[in-house]
Amino acid sequence: MTPRLVLVLGDQVSVHVAALKAADKSRDVVVMAEVADEAVYVPHHPKKIALLFAAMRKFAARLEAEGWRVAYTRLDDPDNAGSIGGELLRRAQGVGATEVLATEPGEWRLIEVLRDHPLKVHVLEDDRFLCSHAEFADWAEGRKALRMEHFYREMRRKSGFLMDGNQPEGGQWNFDHDNRKGPPKGLSGPVPPRFDPDAVTDAVLTLVEARFGHHFGDLRPFRFATDPDQAQQALDHFIAHALPSFGDYQDAMVRGQDFLFHAVLSAYINAGLLDPLDACRRAEAAYRAGDAPLNAAEGFIRQIIGWREFVRGVYFREGPGYAARNALGHDRKLPPVYWGAETKMRCMSEAIDVTRREGYAHHIQRLMVTGNFALLAGIDPHDVHEWYLAVYADAYEWVEAPNTVGMSQFADGGVVGSKPYVSSGNYLAKMSDYCKSCAYGVKVKTGPDACPFNLLYWDFLTRHRDRFARNPRMAQIYRTWDRMDAAKRDTILSEARTFLDRLDAGDPV
Ligand code: FAD
Ligand code: DLZ
Ligand code: SF4
Fold first, then answer.
1. Is pLDDT of 383 > 80?
2. Structural domains of the chain ordered from first start
3. Do residues 370 and 253 make contact, with C-beta atoms less than 8 angstroms apart?
């Protein structure tokens, strides 16, 4: 029988992907390719490229050891066609194939490449998720607004995680109100396991350094897990050492503490090195054994079967134009501070520094520091989207775009969130220790030392008054503004303008 090609992408390095499950080992040829197009359509962090190339090489070796025929193309292969579509054509000619089995990619961009490809490509739904496209469509059908909390309850019932019969464990679906503790002095979390590069990873590091070393981000030291066993060790470590405090300090930020009690597993889960539902089972087992409190286990499981599944549902339901949305009409260019230019804002320098070193920042840094600043400053959400997609090792459009364009920038007009995630410096002072060592004063509302978040917050709210003043959850803020002395309001807005002019001019801020 004519062989078919079985496409396995860099974020599909799992034996459980649909295309491999549908393929026939004795007939088909697995195609894996390191291609320049995928590495540069946004300038991915070198650690992210290295993670994927190392994981791909190891996965290909495993498939071969299990008896698969694998056509693997390295980036420096002289015949490399440079793109996924091109590699499929080249390999098809090589083995005489006319058909391809593919697991649905996580970006519309590549889905379209496969749909329009001259070969006959069978795109199979990626079933590494709890909720299929059809189930999400059924759930969303007829709803005025899609809200994660309602979706999450469905997923709890479906999965059975933390259920007591048909009721939620502990009598509550969501313990988020227990998960907003500010950091006490000296709070520190466990350091996630780090893995020394082996020969395969070393070769990848040399290649990535030569080809993509100029991208934003430090390649070395490189200590990521690059195979399922190492990723499993990272999960074991999280469950034993960080999960117990995960809930309490989920929103906290501490200077010099890159990970606190976060899992630091998203890059592994999204690439296929870890099974998300297995991580949830482990969290529930830790709770049932008395090793983790309910607010921690519930909070962790909610992030995975709630948020992760919800944003995926939104991305595929909203269609290919989603990442280009700009409901608030923001058009400021992304300022150099996002690419590491010096800044006096401690919160921004901390969040961007860990991003540069680790290809990671935790959720509240992404949402309430870099995201909040971009939204308040009116930065073009597409620029913001491309930045997040490039700099985080866990970023693929299906998960990154709803989080950035939707949750963080409100550019989808309220599909993901019912109100914008904006705050003045107050919130950051409560949830972090950053302000204590910042050149700006978080309590200072005007003048050269005023925290920029304090100025920009009011500027944002007044610019978008027509849209948000009628939102019941924001009305109180507008009342506070309206009660403020008129001269003070003028000063705040004029100083915000001056700050934004400096940002536009590329001046240090
Ligand atoms: P933890 O905080 O320990 O959470 C545990 C797990 O839950 C994560 O590993 C992840 O799999 C899942 N999770 C948590 N929050 C979310 C969420 N909002 N959406 C989806 N999954 C979630 N996450 C990505 O995986 N890829 C992205 O590209 C991405 N971009 C983001 C952009 C912005 C602007 C924001 C605000 C959030 C983004 N997130 C993204 C969500 C979240 O910030 C990361 O999943 C999380 O920081 C990963 O670190 P962790 O493994 O330590 O997660
Ligand atoms: C992110 C990425 C990078 C940097 N390189 C490759 C690659 O060379 N080959 C590959 O198959 N996949 C790569 N990826 C992951 C893809 O970009 C990802 O599969 C799509 O964006 C869909 O999620
Ligand atoms: Fe950030 Fe303002 Fe606090 Fe400085 S004072 S760390 S700019 S919130």
1. yes
2. 5-124 (3.40.50.620), 133-196+224-318 (1.25.40.80), 336-505 (1.10.579.10)
3. no
